[in-house]
Design a protein that fits this description.
The chain has helices at about 15-25, 30-40, 45-50, 50-65, 85-90, 105-110, 120-140, 150-160, and strands at about 1-5, 25-30, 70-75, 95-100, 140-145. It has about 160 residues and is α/β, with parallel strands linked by helices. It has one domain (about 1-160): Rossmann fold (3-Layer(aba) Sandwich), CATH 3.40.50. Helix 1 packs across helix 8 (about 150-160), helix 2 packs across helix 4 (about 50-65) and helix 3 (about 45-50) packs across helix 4. It is globular.
Length: about 160
Amino acid sequence: MNIILCGFMGSGKTVVGKELSRILGRKFIDTDEYIEQQNGVSIKAIFASRGEDYFRELEHNACKELASEKSCVISTGGGALTFERNVEILKQSGKVVFLDASFEVICERIGNNTNRPLFQDRDKAKLLFDERHEKYAKAADFIIDGNMSAMKTAMDIASIIK
């Protein structure tokens, strides 16, 4: 059974995922890194050159491919599990955990990072955050407080999954 982490960008999916994989002795896969490796270009460059729709197709294909993995910790991109088709595919391979971090904590974590195409405008990002929150909660088998440290969050997930 895989553990699939979802949540808004900056909620800690990658950092928590790496910590969780270390604690549980499982392979860690980040869907955004996977897409970048498969395409030889950054997510930001994909958005800039081909647009969001093209990226979402790449993301869907990555979800299909990664759903065949066994006993992994999979960190999904912020938008991946806002699409029902991705939720259905990934839920067949494991349990979905929503890292529910507040927008304020997310802003602190992201700071002025320019590598996040959908976080360039804070007001638009807040609207997106609000829109996606319900979708994450609906997709999740478990909801975890994402405002804690990565170690605490990973420990909490590990105790729930065992």
